[in-house]
Design goal:
The structure is a single chain. By secondary structure, the protein is of the alpha+beta class. It has 2 domains: about 40-320, Rossmann fold (3-Layer(aba) Sandwich), CATH 3.40.50; about 345-455, no CATH class. Helices cover about 35% and strands about 15% of the residues. The strands form 4 sheets. The chain has a 6-stranded mixed beta sheet, with helices on both faces. A 5-stranded antiparallel beta sheet has the order 13-14-17-16-15. The N and C termini lie far apart (about 75 Å). The protein binds 2-acetamido-2-deoxy-beta-D-glucopyranose (5 copies). One 2-acetamido-2-deoxy-beta-D-glucopyranose binds near residues 127, 130 and 135.
Length: about 500
C-alpha cells in the first residue's frame, strides 16, 4: 500500500473518531434540554380564513399568541398570520376587541401583525417555516430562523377539507406540499422537535398516511380525516356568545379545549400526552387524532409553548376537572346557516336587515343543493357508473394517504372551486369525492386550450369516451353540470375526446 493509501485510511479513522465524539455530544444535548431551557422556542400561528363570519379562527390564533407571550416566548420568535379584518370590522360589536369566549378578555391587544391581508398566503407560510427570507412577499418579513437545537410549534385554525386547508388569498395548503416542506426542514436540521396543532374540518387528512414517524414531529388534529370540526360559544350553544354577537361563534371546540387547558395549568408539569387526553375528552363532536413521533408524548408542553408563572399551583386533579359544563356544538359547515337564521330572528320584522338575511339564507341553501347535485353528476360522468352515493366521501382506509396522484387531485379541486363555485364552507366537503375520481384510475389530464385571449381547461376522462367515438356532433354530448357551465365531451383536434369541465365556450 502506498503512503497515500495509508494516509487516506488515517484520515478516514480520524473522521470516524470526530463523528463519534460529535454524536455523543448531541445525545448529551438532547438529554439536558428537555426542560426547554436550551435552544429557542419558535411558534407560527396561522388563521387561514377572512371575513367577520369566520371571527372564531382569528380569535383562536390571537388567544394562542397571548398564551405563548405569557408563557415566556418572545415576539421575535412568534410569527402570526391573520387577515386582520375582524377587530375593526363594522359588524364587530366591540370595536378593536376580539374575544375567544363569552365574557372573555381581549385577545387582540398586542398581537404582532406579521402577515396580514394578502400576505396571508401559502407561499409565505411555507417560506416562513423554511426560514427562507427571500421567498416572502409583504408582511414583516419575519421568518423562523431556527437551528438544530430549536423547537417549533405550529398552530393553524381554519376551514379545511380532505387533503388541504384554505388560505384567505391564493392557493390552498395541500397536505402533500406541507409534508414535503416538513421533510425538507428535517433534512436541513431546522429543528430539534416540532409540534403541530390543527383545527379544521377533516384535518386528520393532512397527516394520515403521510407524516412519517421518524421526523421528530408530533401533530394533533381537531378531527379525523373524514369528519368536520365544530364551532363553540355560538348563539346556539351553551354557554352562548353574548347577544350582541348575533349568534356568531367565538371559538372552535378543539382549539378552545387546548387553549383553555394551557392557560390554566403549569406547562412544566403537563405532558403532550396529558394534554392530548384532556383535549380529546373535551372535544366531543369530532375525534381528536395524533400523528407522527410518539417519543414526543412525554415532553412537557413548556418546551414548546412556555408556561405562565402564575399557574404554578397546578394539580392533576384540576387538569381532569377542566371540562366545559354542558356545551352543545355546531358542526362547522352548519355555522353559516345558523348564523343567518339567528340574524333573521334578531332583526325586526319587515326591516331591510331581515330581508337581506332571508335572501342570503335562501341563496345559500339553493347553492348547497346545487353543489350536492353537481358532485353526483361529476362522479357519474367521470366514473361511468350510476350508483355513486358511496363515493361522496373518501373511500381510503385509515393509514392510507388520501390520494397518490396529488396533481390530479389539485386539478379537480381547483376546477370544482373555480367552475362550480364550491366554497370552503360547504362545497369542499366533497373533496374526498374528487380524490376518489383520481384513485379510481381516471386519468385527469389538464389540457390548456387557448382561444382568443382565454385559456380553457379540459380534462381527459378516457373511461367515458368510447360511447362517443365516431361522432362529430359535440353539441349532443353537452351535459349541464354546474349552474352556468357545461360539462361537454369535445372532439379535440388530435382525435381524442376531452371532457370540457369549465367555461362556456367550446373550442372552434
Ligand atoms: C426561497 O424562495 C424563493 C422564492 O419562492 C425560491 O426561489 C428559493 O428557491 C427559496 N429558497 C429555498 C432555500 O427554499
Ligand atoms: C399557590 O398556593 C399557595 C398555597 O396554597 C397560595 O398561598 C398561593 O397564593 C397560590 N399561588 C397562586 C399564584 O395561586
Ligand atoms: C345547559 O345548562 C344551562 C344552564 O344550567 C341550561 O340552561 C341549558 O338548558 C343546558 N343545556 C343543555 C343542552 O343541557
Ligand atoms: C381579452 O378579453 C377581454 C374580455 O373578453 C377583452 O375585453 C379584451 O379586449 C381581450 N384582449 C385581447 C388582446 O384580445
Ligand atoms: C359505461 O357503462 C356502461 C354500462 O355499465 C357500459 O356498457 C359501457 O361500456 C361503459 N363505458 C365505458 C367507456 O367504460
Amino acid at each position: 500500500m502506498s503512503f497515500l493509501g495509508h494516509f487516506q485510511i488515517f484520515l478516514f479513522l480520524y473522521a470516524l473518531l470526530l463523528l463519534s465524539a460529535q454524536s455523543r455530544k448531541t445525545e448529551h444535548d438532547t438529554e439536558s434540554s428537555d426542560d426547554g431551557a436550551e435552544g429557542t422556542r419558535w411558534a407560527v400561528l396561522v388563521a387561514g380564513s377572512k371575513e367577520y363570519e369566520n371571527y372564531r379562527h382569528q380569535a383562536d390564533i390571537c388567544h394562542a399568541y397571548q398564551i405563548l407571550r405569557k408563557g415566556g416566548l418572545k415576539d421575535e420568535n412568534i410569527i402570526v398570520f391573520m387577515f386582520d379584518d375582524i377587530a375593526l370590522n363594522p359588524k364587530n360589536p366591540k370595536r378593536g376587541v376580539i374575544i375567544n369566549r363569552p365574557g372573555g378578555e381581549d385577545v387582540y391587544q398586542g398581537v404582532p401583525k406579521d402577515y396580514t391581508g394578502e400576505a396571508v398566503n401559502v407561499e409565505n407560510f411555507l417560506n416562513v417555516i423554511l426560514g427562507n427570507e427571500s421567498g416572502v412577499t409583504g408582511g414583516s418579513g419575519k421568518v423562523v430562523k431556527s437551528g438544530p437545537n430549536d423547537n417549533i410549534f405550529i398552530y393553524y385554525a381554519d376551514h379545511g377539507a380532505t387533503g388541504f386547508m384554505s388560505m384567505p388569498t391564493g392557493e390552498a395548503l395541500y397536505a402533500e406540499d406541507f409534508i414535503k416542506v416538513l421533510e425538507r426542514m428535517h433534512l436541513l436540521k431546522r429543528y430539534k422537535k416540532m409540534v403541530i396543532y390543527i383545527e379544521a374540518c377533516e384535518s386528520g387528512s393532512m397527516f394520515e398516511g403521510l407524516l412519517k414517524t421518524n421526523l421528530n414531529i408530533y401533530a394533533v388534529t381537531a378531527s379525523s380525516a373524514e369528519e368536520s370540526s365544530s364551532g363553540i360559544y355560538c348563539g346556539y350553544t351553551y354557554p352562548p356568545s353574548p347577544p350582541e354577537y348575533n349568534g356568531l361563534c367565538l371559538g372552535d371546540e378543539f382549539s378552545v379545549s387546548w387553549l383553555e387547558d394551557s392557560e390554566l395549568h403549569d406547562m412544566r408539569k403537563e405532558t403532550l400526552k396529558q394534554q392530548y387526553q384532556v383535549v380529546k375528552r373535551r372535544t366531543r363532536s369530532s375525534h381528536v387524532c395524533r400523528f407522527g413521533s410518539e417519543e414526543l408524548l412525554n415532553d412537557y408542553l413548556v418546551s414548546y409553548i412556555g408556561t405562565n408563572p402564575e399557574n404554578k399551583n397546578f394539580s392533576l386533579a384540576a387538569l381532569t376537572a377542566s371540562q366545559i359544563s354542558n356545551l352543545s356544538l355546531v358542526n362547522t359547515r352548519e355555522i353559516p346557516l345558523l348564523y343567518l337564521r339567528k340574524k333573521i330572528q334578531n332583526a325586526p320584522v319587515g326591516s331591510p336587515e331581515r330581508q337581506e338575511a332571508q335572501k342570503n339564507l335562501i341563496d345559500e341553501m339553493n347553492h348547497r343543493k346545487q353543489i350536492d347535485q353537481n358532485i353526483i353528476e361529476i362522479l357519474r360522468l367521470s366514473l361511468n357508473q350510476s350508483n355513486v352515493l358511496d363515493l361522496l366521501t373518501s373511500t381510503r382506509t385509515t393509514g392510507q394517504p388520501l390520494v397518490d396522484d396529488w396533481d390530479c387531485f389539485k386539478t379537480l379541486v381547483k376546477s370544482f372551486k373555480n367552475q362550480c363555485g364550491a366554497k370552503m364552507e360547504y362545497g369542499m366537503k366533497y373533496a374526498g369525492a374528487l380524490a376518489n375520481i383520481c384513485n379510481m384510475g381516471v386519468d385527469v389530464k389538464q389540457h390548456l386550450h387557448r382561444q382568443g385571449n382565454k385559456t380553457q381547461t379540459f380534462f381527459w376522462f378516457p373511461s367515458i369516451l368510447s360511447p362517443f367515438l365516431g361522432s362529430q356532433d359535440t353539441a349532443a354530448y353537452t351535459r349541464y353540470v354546474c349552474p352556468d357551465i357545461s360539462l361537454a365531451f369535445v372532439l379535440a383536434t388530435d382525435m381524442t375526446f376531452l371532457v370540457h369541465f369549465g367555461v362556456d365556450e367550446l373550442p372552434g
